[in-house]
Design goal:
mainly alpha; three-stranded antiparallel sheet; homotetramer; 11 helices; about 270 residues; about 55% helix; globular
Chain lengths: ~270, ~270, ~270, ~270
Amino acid sequence: MEIWNTAITETGAGQIRIRGYDVSAMMRERSFADVLFLLHQSRLPSMGERRLLDAMLIASADHGPESPSSLAARVVASGNRRAPEAAVAAGLLAIGDVHGGAGEECLVLLAEGLAWIADDADADGDERSVATAAAGIVARAVREGKRLPGLGHRTHAEDPRATVLFAMARESGLAGSGVALIEALRDEAARVIRPLPVNVDGALAAVLLDLGFPPVAARFVFMVGRIAGLTAQVAEELTRERPMRIRVPVSYDGPAARDVPRDPVP
Amino acid sequence: MEIWNTAITETGAGQIRIRGYDVSAMMRERSFADVLFLLHQSRLPSMGERRLLDAMLIASADHGPESPSSLAARVVASGNRRAPEAAVAAGLLAIGDVHGGAGEECLVLLAEGLAWIADDADADGDERSVATAAAGIVARAVREGKRLPGLGHRTHAEDPRATVLFAMARESGLAGSGVALIEALRDEAARVIRPLPVNVDGALAAVLLDLGFPPVAARFVFMVGRIAGLTAQVAEELTRERPMRIRVPVSYDGPAARDVPRDPVP
Amino acid sequence: MEIWNTAITETGAGQIRIRGYDVSAMMRERSFADVLFLLHQSRLPSMGERRLLDAMLIASADHGPESPSSLAARVVASGNRRAPEAAVAAGLLAIGDVHGGAGEECLVLLAEGLAWIADDADADGDERSVATAAAGIVARAVREGKRLPGLGHRTHAEDPRATVLFAMARESGLAGSGVALIEALRDEAARVIRPLPVNVDGALAAVLLDLGFPPVAARFVFMVGRIAGLTAQVAEELTRERPMRIRVPVSYDGPAARDVPRDPVP
Amino acid sequence: MEIWNTAITETGAGQIRIRGYDVSAMMRERSFADVLFLLHQSRLPSMGERRLLDAMLIASADHGPESPSSLAARVVASGNRRAPEAAVAAGLLAIGDVHGGAGEECLVLLAEGLAWIADDADADGDERSVATAAAGIVARAVREGKRLPGLGHRTHAEDPRATVLFAMARESGLAGSGVALIEALRDEAARVIRPLPVNVDGALAAVLLDLGFPPVAARFVFMVGRIAGLTAQVAEELTRERPMRIRVPVSYDGPAARDVPRDPVP
């Protein structure tokens, strides 16, 4: 079998090193957010970076039993009480394109916008700014009838998690062009479409971009944060509810009762 | 790396054989139930065995969107529309101990009962019959306050799937001591506890035991059958419903709003 | 809570009907492939359609422990012996875009090709045939440097499952423009690129298109078939191998050992 | 539909509170470990408790690609590149009874041992101590031929993660009877069986017991920590390796090639 190369973790008799750092030493000196940052960036974060990553994990941690991930986890726990890992995994599986996946899509969009701004080879000589990039992106979304990932929320008129995260990013001097572009998108959308708050997906995307993470990290950070809530939701289902308790009101509107033909048509 | 031994499938240039039989030849001559039987028993089934396995798969195929497996699959599809495999897998994860898992537990119980009957070394000279085994099993369940796996259903007073399966097993001469024992358990439970129909889990357990399958097969056959329904449930969610449409009526009864202490107690 | 509408299954006291047909009656008269067809098409299949669907399920059933789905299932079973549903679900999760997902992509491609042929409004007056569609599709793939989904196999120079399936479709008169187009693609690819056999994904796509299934059905049929093999692979791992037995040869090539800075940079 | 009660999270227009605490305020003031503790204990931790929980999450974060969870995640990523949530979920599914599940089992064992010590009603008047409890538990394991959960490791003669965690628990005054009992078990096992280090599962179990967590928390904390590593393993597979790259050396030892009988025996 081919050798598997890995640049993440080295294990040997009595020692485990992640990206070169001894795990025992990090247990003493560092936080979980530091190690998550290290795993993905191969360096330990500054205090400001650590605080932003902690804030993003907390922002993602739980949103009640109604979010598809929590709901899926509780439904699985309701039928499968001996394997809580199955319930938590089912919760993660709901974090796809619609639920919790907008962050990844938004980060791609922001990165493309910034690449367009950075590109000098503008044939028509127009100045490229965050505002013109935002105008172009919103115009395209309107033209194609598509929603803007990272903007809008089904419950919140303003998503408090986004507001705090951007304030923290500014205070620590880590807010960059990612945050600037998504705020420009929000302002342009408010002008052209309707008020659409930056949601938690969009906030994570902008800040993670400014911290140097690739698009898939928006999904991963949301998942790492949300698993805290999923474990609590599953624990509550297992300790507080009886098995198979979940009912939904079903109405059948398919074909009427009919007889089974004895043999298939040859 | 150590060699992986397998007795299931052999693949090579231009050929695939399952348990020694060419897949292409089986595609021409055989049914899916035949191959499922073959995969687990290493022999092809008789016509009667095939028909019973088909009947068990059909019995397991679907029970509406309310069963935990279907519900979990639809919730995941509601948040994750680009990866239907995630939704179907979440459905399978709900098939644990409570939902769909009673078959495995029931098969273990039946096998233990039959082993007890077959055991000659009965110190007290009493005759061991299906009826005395059933009486002992029911008495123990009553004493320990445990339910009997394979008996009872939350919707059906009589589970029509069990009735038909037992009739088919009898007609084909394949009903054996497994079917006899679960029917004795049902009769004893009706006498001692209350009328408890054999449910689909119990029916599968009894017939699979008589066909020579091990306990875990009750779970596997249910899963293989149910995946047909899960794929249809996911297809209906994706084509008929809008994303994130699922709502549950939530009431919060946890701690009241309180201020976050700025620093942890040292 | 909103009512959930469903056109699949109706359950009530003592009765279960799928698409209007009583499950008990189908257990007596029909096969599992019939019910899978019914669940997705809302009608029972002809004998020829049933045989093709059975053949597709058998073609998908197993391909040894090395396929990503089987391998994932066995690895999970190796660490999780009390929840076989987790192992089978992990196997399904590997059926994504690369493994087993080409069928869906291929069915989309074929359907687009047939729609292009059927479109009368051809501005330049050229005749549109299966051959010209195939030439256009292959030319585009070459131009864009993309592989053709449904063609090529890492093990087989000719995939025997495709050959048999197409022969069966022809014999039963059910091979239509889907089969014709993928064979034209294969011939064109052999001329322009190199010999690329139709693989099992492509064969399923073409035949399912001719049977009236939508693209996602290619994934679903593969999953339903493969779950038979996954249950057998998991059963073999659990009965034949010791826990945690799986080793891979790992080589670490990340950062060298380094000291953990005591405090994050502020 | 029945109301769902929850004591975890309250959401409303513009506000999210976990166990009564505003999420935005916690994003500013607290760490992820604080919120995980809060979700499960309904109170914020002290600084010492936070540091122990962080250390446990770091201890669980990664152990290289060879652990069943990482391996399963990478195999799934190898076949499913468009849905990283499927790969991470498959990794969690491997955290069952054998891999990563010993913590839960160990915590149950420790809690039973402490309950036995605390029980005054000792008929024979013997003094009940941590040492006599440990002797009894080890003797029973030897008698029943069972391994002791939380002791022993396939790679490490001493698990450095356990050593550091116990030192930290002592330094902060949080090491209690859980740590005392597992160390007594280790010493007794070394005397009676052979040197068996406390492994990371056992260390988490003992410290979580002393922090007031229930048994299932050992599994949950391991899962929350490990998901950090799983996301990094999946990211490395997706960016560094080609699809479907994973091969295992397979040897078939099942039935020899044989002809398919045309019809089933009736």
